[in-house]
Amino acid sequence: MLGESGACMRISLTWHFASCRCLCGWTAALCLALAAGAARGATVTNIYANPPTATEATSLLDPGGGTIRFVQVAAGTVDFTGSNTYSAGTEILGSSAFSASSVSPLGSGDVTVRGSGSLLLNLSVMNGRTISNNLTLNDGAAVQLINGPWNSASLLEGTGHLDLGGSVSITLGTGGQTWPSLKLSGLIQNEGITTGSLQVAGNNSPGYSGTSYLQLHGNNTYSGGTTLKNLGYVSAWHSNALGSGAVTVQSNAVLYLASGITITNNLVLMGGGQVMTKSGNETLNGTITLPGTGSSTLVAGTDAGNLVMNLNPAGGRITGSGGLTLYRGYWATDKTDNFNFYGDNDYTGTTTVANGAYATAYHANAFGTNAGAIIVQSVYGGSGSALLAIASTLAGGLHPARSIWCGANGFFLQPNGTTISNTVTLAGGGYRFSSSGAGSRMHSGAIVITPGTTSTMDAGAYAPGGDWYQAGALTGSGTLVVAGSSASDAKVHFQGSNSTFSGTIISQRSGQFDWRYVGSDNGLGTGSCVLQGTAASDILLRLDKSLSLTNSFEGTGKIEAGSYTLTHAGSLTPGATNSIGALAVGGTLDFRGVFNWNYNGTTNDVVNAATLLFGNPGGSA
Question: What is the spatial distance between Cα 343 and Cα 278, in angstroms, rounded to a whole number?
Answer without folding.
Answer: 22
